[in-house]
């Protein structure tokens, strides 16, 4: 099981998928929301506590999380970074393996282009997970996209590791033991 996280101070999306081979299926998804009238520390504690509850309930083995984009609005990026930190502490407490991905990497993995818009990402997440309706809110869809990206990257890393191990084994074999193409 893989947990995906789309961090945000107002809305932190989360989604849990199950990966079997190259197929991914949704298990659950949702959004942790906080309001601007709350104290910042309480908002961050709420994100942490509710993410810890998601981890406790679904017990994922790994996490794919979107990294913070530092564009024009650095204040927004700072708030997102704080929310991301609160969510990551909850996953770290459960000793989950974590992969961090840029928005462009996630879009590339799910849609095939890093320039995809939100609607294209949502459409492809729905299609890849074979869902009959759009995922609401879109923060949950983005979290599922992060989980799918992690599943794809994880599968790619596993294949690379197998090839490297195979090459290392072939390098240690004597000329007589090596297979010819």
The gist of it:
The chain is of the alpha/beta class and 181 residues long.
SSE blueprint and pairings:
Blueprint: E1 2-6, E2 11-20, E3 23-33, H1 40-58, E4 62-66, H2 74-93, E5 97-101, H3 103-111, H4 118-128, H5 138-172
Helix pairs in contact: 1-2, 3-5, 4-5
Verbal overview:
- The chain is α/β, with parallel strands linked by helices and 181 residues long.
- It has one domain: Ribonuclease H-like superfamily/Ribonuclease H (Nucleotidyltransferase, domain 5), CATH 3.30.420.10.
- 52% of the residues lie in helices and 20% in strands.
- The chain has a five-stranded mixed sheet with strand order 3-2-1-4-5.
- Helix 1 crosses helix 2 and helix 4 packs across helix 5 (138-172).
- It starts with a strand and ends in a 9-residue tail after the last helix.
- 36% of the residues are buried.
Notable features of this structure?
single chain, 181 residues, alpha/beta, Nucleotidyltransferase, domain 5, five-stranded mixed β-sheet, 5 helices, globular
For this structure, the CATH topology is Nucleotidyltransferase, domain 5
| Average of per-residue pLDDT values | 88
Strand order of the largest sheet: 3-2-1-4-5
- Report the span from N to C terminus: 38 Å
Radius of gyration: 19 Å
Largest sheet, strands/sense/barrel? 5 strands, mixed
Helical content (DSSP H or I, runs of 4+): 40-55%
User: Helical stretch count?
Assistant: 5
Report low-confidence residues grouped into runs of 5 or more: 176-181
Please identify the top-level CATH class.
Answer: Alpha Beta
Characterize the overall form. globular
Could you say which structural class the secondary elements and strand pairing correspond to? alpha/beta
Tell me how many strands there are: 5
H/E element order: EEEHEHEHHH
- Name the CATH homologous superfamily: Ribonuclease H-like superfamily/Ribonuclease H
Second-tier CATH architecture? 2-Layer Sandwich
- Binned strand content: 15-25%
Tally of domains: 1
């Amino acid at each position: 099981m893989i947990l995906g996280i789309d961090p945000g101070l107002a809305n932190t999306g989360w989604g849990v998928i199950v990966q079997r081979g190259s197929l991914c299926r949704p298990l659950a998804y949702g959004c942790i929301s906080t309001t601007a009238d709350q104290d910042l520390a309480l908002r961050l504690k709420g994100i942490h506590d509710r993410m810890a509850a998601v981890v406790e309930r679904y017990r994922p083995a790994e996490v794919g999380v979107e990294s913070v984009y530092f564009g024009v609005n650095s204040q927004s990026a700072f708030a997102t970074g704080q929310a991301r930190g609160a969510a990551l502490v909850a996953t770290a407490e459960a000793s989950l393996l974590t992969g961090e991905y840029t928005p462009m990497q996630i879009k590339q993995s799910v849609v095939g282009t890093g320039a995809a818009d939100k609607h294209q990402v949502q459409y492809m997440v729905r299609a890849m997970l074979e869902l009959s309706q759009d995922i609401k809110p879109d923060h949950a869809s983005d979290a599922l996209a992060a989980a799918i990206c992690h599943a794809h990257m994880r599968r790619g890393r596993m294949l690379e590791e197998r090839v490297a191990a195979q090459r290392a084994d072939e390098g240690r074999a004597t000329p007589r033991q090596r297979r010819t193409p």
